[in-house]
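Build the 3D complex.
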Amino acid sequence: MSIALQSAPVSTSEQPGSKTPAPRRERGVAPPAGSASKPLREPDSLAELAALAAKGDRPAFESIHRRLAPGIHRLFLERASGRVELADDLSQRTWLASWDSLQKGRYDPARSAITTFIYAVAYKMWLQWLRTASRPEKLMPDVFEGATPDASSPDFEAAASELLTAVRRCLREQGEDAVLTDEERGIMRATASGASDREIAKDLKVAASTLNARKQAAFEKIRRFLAGLGHRRESTERGSDGRE
Amino acid sequence: MDRERIESLLRMAHEIERLESEAALRPDFARDGRAPASSPLDPRDASGTFSFARAVANREAVHASLRSEHRGRRGWRLVVGVTAAAMVGLIALQMLAPLGGAGTTLAPSSTASGPAALKLEPVMVAGAGSGETIPEAVACEVEPPRSTAVAHEPGFGSRIIAVALDADSSCRCSQTVLHRWDSHQQLAAVTRADLLRIGFESACVAEPERILVVAVSGPVDQLPDSDEAIAALAHCVAMAEEGEDVGLLVQDEAEYAAAAMSCITRGLVVQAATMLNR
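Done.
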């Protein structure tokens, strides 16, 4: 909850019953050294900004934050069922961790988009919060379990973003070398956006069983593509759970 | 990789694409020529909006600035902590007027000794084990309230723990107050707004961004009174944050209330409330 309060807080040094406005603390500090003379023209693309940010360019990181922060916050808000404070905290942790990861060289612009990387960081923060909140009813299977290092590992976000990049490639590529056909790509995109099988089948004017078969084929192609890149769930491959 | 996981990954990919689409629509510094409205690397922008990421990214300069500011304003330096709150500060407050009056006034109440000084230590991100850190805490300088004579009177009261977190999340301290309600006051009529106002007025940092208030209410003679009892209650409240990062308040107020319940006697009422201030 947020309340705008007009009165000044009581200082602890005051006599009981009396109130004196506490001196306002100066907020804000000067921009980091070197940024004051930054030319007005910034790199335009997230890719350019990411490359600079990975080298420690703070204004570039600021630009990335400016563009992505509302979306990241929205994602947390959705996951946290509208709890603004939690979304605020997790968003802040995400940006904190993202900056640290960039400074420690964990982000490779050549291997994933900065959006994907920050998304992976955000997912990690969400997982960590779920675990520390000790709420079994809200625990969800880690999508990356087995395919990436554990979420507590510093390598998690890089591995997760690579996996997500591979999945995004399936959804984007067109042409002869594409993983999926145009129709399969359309079906997967519709599935990813939350469309029901009934809606997709209606759009394609096919029976539900036909749609299911085509979806299954698309999933199999994606699975093989990911496995070919080294993204596999080891426990599944060994058949420890008896599936696939 | 099974179908369910692939579907989850597809949904994530869709979310990422949505992020990028939104980002592409956002006004950009290069396009409109205006200076950025907010920066993650400046603790606050012109409107006063705080970004923790900004403070962290520029944490060295921020902390140096805060340290010198604290040192110059206060006579002495205290460090604040999280789990081992030695809650001994009591502030005199005015009694609330009966409900339905023109307004509430607070009459002086009892005070005890100094402030609640909690040690805030450099911490690691909880659960990460990755070497990632959040910034070291800045020492908070809090002057203790002056002690006055305690007059024990019958009636209802509330032992209120007010935990305040400043905007940089680098200074966290707590105070404990004993608030005596009007003799006609019903416990059930103690509102959340009442508690938050007391908590805000008891805040031991200037311009707190967050305040947590945990109030144990009931007959005054049954409320935690000794230093040991107050410290035990504070410790119970802090247990709600077990496993959380230092410097961040757990979001669910009920968790604080539930944690306090485990340390109070039968017949007392526990309420918890949090507040953000911008």
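Confidence is low (pLDDT under 50) at residues 29-83, 96-139, 141-153 of chain B.
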